[in-house]
Amino acid sequence: MSRTLRWFAVIGVALVVFGPLGLILYQSFLNEPFFSQSARFSLDAYRYILSDSGFHSAFGTSLVVSFGMTLISVPLGSLLAFLLVRTDLPGKKWLEPWILVPIFLSPVVLAFGYVVAVGPVGFFSLWTKALIGRVPWSLYSLFGMVLIAGLTHVPHTFLYVSSALRSLDPSVEEAARVAGAGPWRIAVTVSLPLVLPSILFSAALIFLLGFELFGLPLVLGDPAGLLVLTTYLYKLTNLLGIPSYHLMAVVALSIVALTFPLVYLQRRMLRTAGRFAVIGGKGQAFRPLPLGALRWPAVAVVVLWLAVTVLLPLVGVALRSLVSSWGEGIKLSEVLTLDHFRELSGYPNLVRGIINTFLIGGVGGALSVIFYAVVALAAHRWQSRWVTFLDYLVMVPRALPGLVVGLAFLWVFLFFKPIAPLRTTLFSLWIAYTVVWLAYGLRLISASLFQVKPELEEAARVTGATQGLVFRDVTLPLIRFGLIGSWLLIFMMYIREYSTGVYLLGPGTEVIGSLIVSLWGTGALDLIAALSVVEVALVGIVLFIALRLGVRLDA
After folding, report:
1. For residues 20 and 405, is the Cβ–Cβ distance under 8 A?
2. What are phi and psi of 87, to 5 degrees?
3. Which end of the chain is more exposed for a tag (fewer CB within 10 A), N or C?
4. How far is CA 228 from CA 156, 217, 398, 549, in A?
């Protein structure tokens, strides 16, 4: 069974990863969509895209956004990690879970929240204008997009840097403290330099995520005429009056060509990070560094970031869902209503989208966890070069934005006629989600498997148990709580996913995220607000359950 399971994992992952990617490559060398009778091999698509000024502009904007958000999120995320892990910051046990919340919120919902909160006619914009006579900020600008992207990606840096700081030997900080160094000097000259590999790893991740941004540029960049590579790809859909699949394939490959080296760089950095670790071997007791008079100003920095990144957009979304109209001269108390939520029931596709979102998160998430567990078990304790190959396979989808994966699977279902009927079912969405979150899901399962000591499995083998029985009777029961936690985390990621479903959206496959993207183009702000509140409520409920069960959000 063990041998069969391992080959099933390798072949299965290779098919779901390379199949869609290969179809994108094939389509890029055609002069028309692959379903066209007159389609032939050509380099016309490459010539068109590479000479298009719009592509050059989108590439430049993506580069600026990636650099800008990295410069914002890496220093701020590293600072927050130091404050919450190495100091006596008041209330840090309560604050830490909140710092990771933006990871589980849909970027398109956050972007919409900023529009209705601090946009030109946003709630806080008009209230500020009433106080000082003008709105002192511009949301629809490159700076505004970079700033919000940087702030909302701080948790990704926090996640990796805080994990490294927890493994830091406290004696090195204690020595600096005895020498008279204050907490900020210790942070800059001792603690953070010692976890530099993790900081650089997070910087590479943020830079990669900058090229994958879709929701934020679509909502915040479009009104200002700003395109990034993903929104440029989205605009190409019907550029020629028919699906511009050959042009879209070239853009998709250009994104992969940019992001795949970054994923490879991350992998290399992760492998060498251990060489720089400074971990105490004597179990020295950790004493948080005292902040002294700076304790409450430090709390204010954390709370201010949470207010701007989480509270501001969510309050904006909630208020917009509860008003019949909004603009200058309108009093909030006079326009409160629940009509937008009642209106949802009048649109069967929106109701179906809410139900499908719950199903894809609950049932689909559980099925994905089973698949991830099979792959993880296949590689568990397997000493073979195939494990390295499987590890590389798992990382490939990390270089593919959800928008590209969704597009690729649309083509898979259109290209292979026997499976074409599945395109109008939730299966199409589930398989695309499973591939997009493959690396994340496997990391969750592997973290649980690492807790199982090999002696327990060896004892079962000594008694004559086969590998299959060892997995069933020893390994899986020991990681059952880890599997439940992984399912809850995957549940939240699937609920907040939006870009993967954009091209798979259709009767029967509607989900909240892709519906919001579709509705944004029609200007249906009332329905977007109501749907956003429903999505945030679903995430909030699952997040509450996960925290109550003790699931670690930084798993």
Report:
1. yes
2. -120, 175
3. N
4. 21, 7, 19, 40
Q: Which residue has the tokens 């509140």?
A: 533
φ/ψ of 38, rounded to 5, equals: -95, 10
Euclidean distance between the first and the last CA atom of the chain, given in angstroms as a whole number = 29
Distance separating alpha carbons of residues 84 and 140, to the nearest angstrom:
33
Nearest to 208 by CA among 8, 463, 401: 401
Cβ count near 544 (within 10 Å) = 10
* Residue of 210, 245, 225, 221 whose CA lies nearest to 48: 245
- How confident is residue 8, by pLDDT bands cut at 50, 70 and 90? confident
pTM of the full predicted structure?
A: 0.89
Domain with CATH 1.10.3720.10 in the chain: 1-37+338-555, 43-337
Which tokens go with 75?
């220093």
Task: Name the band, by pLDDT with cuts 50, 70 and 90, for residue 375.
Answer: confident
User: What token pair was written down for 364?
Assistant: 């689909």
Distance CA 440, CA 433 (A): 11
Of all residues in the chain, what percent are helix, strand and coil, respectively (each to 5)? 75, 0, 25
Tell me how far apart the alpha carbons of residues 187 and 524 are, in angstroms, rounded to a whole number: 48
Choose the weakest-confidence range: 228-242, 455-469, 494-508.
Answer: 455-469
Cα distances (Å, whole numbers) of residue 246 to 16, 19, 27, 39, 293: 21, 17, 5, 10, 61
Q: pLDDT (tens digit, 9 = 90+) per residue, 90-120?
A: 988 888 888 988 999 999 999 999 999 999 9
Both structure tokens of 439: 């690396």
| Cβ(301)–Cβ(150) below 8 Å | no
Q: How far is CA 48 from the centre of its chain?
A: 31
Q: How many CB atoms lie within 10 A of CB 459?
A: 13
Q: Is residue 2 classed exposed, middle or buried when 0-12, 13-18 and 19+ CB atoms within 10 A define those classes? A: middle
Q: Which two tokens stand for residue 165?
A: 């700081």
Residue type, 97: P
Choose the CATH number for 43-337 among 3.40.50.720, 2.60.120.200, 1.10.3720.10, 3.40.980.10. 1.10.3720.10
Which CATH fold would you assign to the domain 1-37+338-555? MetI-like fold (1.10.3720)
pLDDT at 1 over 60: no
Helices 196-212 and 154-166, interaxial angle, to 10°? 160
Of the candidates 99, 554, 553, the one whose C-alpha atom is nearest the C-alpha of residue 299 is 99
Angle (CA) 190 192 194, round 5°: 65
Alpha-carbon distance of 232 to 229, in angstroms, equals 5
Length of the chain, in residues: 555
Contacts (Cβ under 8 Å, ≥6 apart) of 537 = none
pLDDT digits (tens, 9 = 90+) for 416-444: 888 989 998 999 999 999 999 988 888 88
Tokens 């830490």 found at: 96
What band does 492 get if pLDDT is binned at 50, 70 and 90? very high
